[in-house]
Amino acid sequence: MIAIHPVVLCGGSGTRLWPRSRKARPKPFLPLVGDKTLFEATLGRCAQDSRFADPVIVTGAAHLEHVRAQIAGFPGARVIVEPEARNTAPAIALAAARLPADAIMLVCPSDHHIADEAAFRDAACAAAKLASEDWLVALGIGPTSPETGYGYIRRGAPLEGGYVVERFVEKPDRATAEGFLADGRFSWNGGIFAFRAGAFLAELARHRPQMAEAVRASVAAGREEDGCFYPDAAAFAAITAESVDYAVMENTERAAMVPAAMGWSDIGNWHALREVREGDAAGNRTRGPVELVDCRNVLVDSDGPRVSVIGLEDIAIVIDGDDVLVTTMAGAQKVGKLAGATNQ
Predict the structure, then answer these.
(1) pTM score
(2) DSSP-derived 3-state class of residue 274
(3) In terms of CB atoms within 10 Å, which end of the chain has fewer, N or C?
(4) Are 249 and 120 within one domain?
């Protein structure tokens, strides 16, 4: 049986779900769907299943207090504290360098929602099998709409349990996304990957040798302190920030994908959050003291003040302390551009 090592990436600035999410408490550490935080739910998906090892968490110093508070129920978790944010490729490489070369890594963002956890675990195990054969595997999310905010994966020749990746595609415009949906061979790239640690580091060294060397030097000169591993900051500072998609996945000749139908959402804005919460017969979702009359598809999330809404459709109203957000669902993508969000 292949042991799968979850590698959970914790970062983010917390702007897209402002005012509830902020730099000081970004969305991974909030109970946005149910009673658990998104981070706790990410850890819990792999817990109490013998196929999964204890998680490795990669985070920054700014989020370390949140991480420590929320891993209390996961005593075997290991924490790597990045000296500074350098996007996903160096973060994954830090974890790979701290694991045995034959360890199968399952890279998971800490702020996604997955409704069908059994389907997630099944897809993860299929990806792990391919990863054990030195494929670099992405989970491909079955698209349900022509989304323009996600990258896409076009599948190629079949493999046992998955497919060769024919190509990765950047975020498309609406017409292109509609074409992808009609084509049937495209999946959303949800940012969940499986690699053998040694194979990932070898591919990184092949395509981004300076990054690979800086990570190696940073880990070699790192230190353990208070139950966390701190890579060397000076060596890490030499790294140019880059995503794992650009640095490795779009360059390797060993890219594969495993289809995953698991009720996935990146909770990327208030519209996405509305879609994963349970609502009433008119599609309204509310938290806090709320009264709605003749409303449809309205999201209200208040941490105290009573909110009354009459005759509106497809809007979000969010109250957090002294901050109030009102937006149409169509405008939810722009929340991160507000001065209140960027200057939180």
Answers:
(1) 0.95
(2) helix
(3) N
(4) yes
